[in-house]
Every structure is written in C-alpha cells, then in structure tokens.
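Sat 14:20. Reprocessing the chain from the morning session after the first attempt stalled halfway. Input below, unchanged.
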Amino acid sequence: MAQESDQEEHAPRPTPPSSVAAHRFPEGSGSAVVLSGSIGRGHDSVAEVCGAALRAGGITARTLDCMALLGSVGARAGTALFRRMLSIPTVYDGFHFSHLRTGTWLPRAMTEASSRRMLPALLEEVGPFDGPTLLLPVFSTGVAVAARLKAERREVTAVTVCTDACAHRMWVREGIDLYVVCSALAAATVRRYDPGAAIATLPPPVRPAFFAPPDRSVARRSLEVPLGAPCVVVMAGGWGLAPLAGTVRALARAGYWVLAVAGGNVRLHERLMALSATFPQVRAFGMTDRVPELMAAADTVVTSPGQTCHEARVVGRRLVVLDVVPGHGRENTIHELENGGALACSPDPASVLGVVQATFADQPEPEPWPLSSAGEWDKLFLAALSEVGVPVSSA
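Finished this time. Tokens:
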C-alpha cells in the first residue's frame, strides 16, 4: 500500500557575552525591531519571547516579517521554494550541508538579493530612522539586513538570536554586535565564521504559557482523557510537514490516546478529524493555542525538531523527535538526542509506534529545565544586551 501523504535539550547554563561592543546607544533612545520569518511558526514564537523581554526592559519593540519585507511576489516565491526543497530531502540536505554551511556563491547571491529588496521596505516600515536603534533578527534572512543597515548607521546595534543547534553561514555577518545562541555547539559554529564574535549562551526562549501549564489531571479532564491512560501528543510544527495521519491511526490502534495537532495544514486537519470520528481516543486540533495544555495532559510528545522540543522540555515531557526536517532539522534532532530525555524516529507509523512504546518502557524523564519562568530568561537576555550597550531597565 502506498504511504499516504499529509503534505500540502537539556538547555545549557547561561554564559555572558564573550566580548563587548565599543559603541553605545544614543542618549534617550530605546526602541527595537525584531526581524522574524513566517517560514513555519518557530521563528514567530522566538520573536514573541524576545519582544516581550525587550518591553520588560523598557524598550519599545515591534516585530516585522522578513518574508513580508520581500514583497508579496518575493514572499510567495521564497515560501514556495522552501516548501519544495523540504519536500525533496536530498535537495535540501545538499543545499544546507554543501552550500549554507560552507557559504558558497549560492547563499551569498541569495542573501545579497534579498537584503537589497528588504532594506528599503524595512526603512519604509519604521519611518525615519531616528527611533529604532536595536535590530534583532531571529531568522537567518534578517541577519544580512541588520548587518547592511549597521554598515550605514553605525549607531545601530545588531543582535542575532539563533535557536538552532548549529549556525550556518547566513547567520553570521560582519557588523553583528552580539550572537545569542542556546548551546556551546551553536557558539562553536558561529566561531567557525567569526572567531572573535561576541556570544551569549542562554537557554532557548520559550513562551510563558509553557512555564505554567495546567496540572496533568486538570488537563486530562478538560480533554476527556482518562487519568491512567497512556497519552501522546503528535505534531509537526506550524506547517504540519509530516505524514501524521497514519501515525495517529497506528497509535490509536495500539491503545494510546492521541492529541494530534495539524497546525495550519488544512488537509491534515481534515484527516485527523476523520480519524477522531473513527477512534474515540483521538483528539484532533488545527492551529491552536492549547499546546501547553495538550503537553500537560500527555506522557510523551512526538514532534519535529525545533521550538516545540524546547516547549515540551519546559513542561517536562519525554520527547520523540521526528527525523522529518532535512538540513538544519537533522542537526537539531541529533542535538536533542545529545541533551537526553529524547529518542528519534523515522516519519512512518511503524517507526513512531515502536519508539513511542520504548519511551513508555524505559526512557528516563528529561532533566528539569534550568529556568523556572519566562521572566528569568528575560533577565538573562536583557543582561546580555546591556553588555553591548543596549540601555535596558530591570525586568
């Protein structure tokens, strides 16, 4: 039978920046632009946390989408190209490992073309540049824009936040004042391209709701999941880029209660809803803000590598990482395994079922997250920014 398609870490202890930028903000300034990217949902989640931290530090912050800055035609073309490459793993692996990591002519040309288009759009969005003095890209395409503007306006401070396990060449540019990364591995990959870079290593930024999930029993009652039943969250990012319907069916047939999240994948959501009509122990969700509650109810979280792995660790759940995202996703998957409390599987029902069964049999619980609240992360982040001259108040 042909396989159906649904397509349309233990965090590190924080360390301070390794060097300090010489310049300071102009007196009286205190505003920022966070540059996110609507490729998936993870970047927007990181941007949300960073923006909240900046506001807690007395800095007016707004978030702009790098894809939107490319214009409607550029955004559609860029998104379509990315989706197409992801759908052919060998192509994206080749692009990532042979071009992005080594910094060949291809990503250089792509970066220059995109930044030339994005910079005028950025300036038009923010108006006369006498306000925002901090540019904070959390998406690799935004790094070149921040560096280009920094070259023109030396009073600007540029800080990059990279939550991937490894930084590729597009994450590192001359003129960036500080790199905020989430592991010693990521810091070392930044130094491949800029040995003298100023780097702050912090735990990954995670939204506050994951630090205060409901009690497991409360979450299960809300979702009508029996208290003693084995329960699994199954998801694959905001795009739902994995053949999850077959996996959900296999888990339900094996006796698991399944909380299945399709994200923005409408076709997948329709299939999951159909499964929930057949299997009473399946709960189907589309794009939802109930993920902290779903994770609280579950024993194990099955997800693609990325921001949801950090969120599951904050909630304290065991991880099964779907090896479904090529390129940087493979690096993230390996890093999650290194961090413990996680196993990996192939994105097919038999593999997922077998690995989920293993998590219930003998996989140890993940290590406790090193922070107890999002506010603690805010303070660490603002302290790192203050080291490069950003005028922040106490969070």
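Residues 105-126 form the longest helix (22 residues).
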